[in-house]
Amino acid sequence: MTSFSKELSFRWSDLDPNFHVRHSAYYDFGAQHRIEILESLGLTMKVMQTQSFGPILFREECVFRKEIKLSDKIFMHTKTSKVNADASRWSIVHEFLNEDNKLCATITVDGAWMDTKLRKLASPTPEIAIEALSIFPKSDDFVSL
User: Percent of the chain at pLDDT above 90?
Assistant: First the structure.
């Protein structure tokens, strides 16, 4: 598998006054896709609650290349671009491509795992998180930290 892919479906509420997808909708689609991917890898919300940890973000950035309109056919491709040896810190990239395979936007997030009881970075990294990130497809420019 080269990436986790999903065709997006836009709603009227995803548009801004210029009739293209509003900037914050991109972030919402990225967050939803990350959670869907983790769930598919066995890292469910229930598992995270039971083991008292969850993902946190340090940075979230979107670079907009081409506007997306309500009726556009868009596919989001998601990969890891950085993961350190113990999978405690990572970066994930979401690419929004149109049906002509033209890049419309890229979201990059940098994150880690937080212990939800201590409210600090999880140490050690929960085994199931290490396993999930090891399965996650990697970007062409992947860096092992």
Answer: 97
DSSP 69: B
Note the pLDDT tens digit of each residue in 36-89.
999 999 999 999 999 999 999 999 999 999 999 999 999 999 999 999 999 999
Q: Answer whether 85's CB lies under 8 Å from 17's CB.
A: no
Can you spell out the DSSP letters for 2-33? Answer: --EEEEE---GGGB-TTSBB-HHHHHHHHHHH
Element (H, E) at 36: helix 23-40
Separation CA 64–CA 66 (nearest Å): 6
Contact status, residue 84 vs residue 133, Cβ threshold 8 Å:
no
At 145, is the secondary structure helix, strand, or coil?
A: coil
* Cα–Cα distance, 105 to 94 (Å, whole number): 8
> Is the predicted pLDDT of residue 31 greater than 80, yes or no?
yes
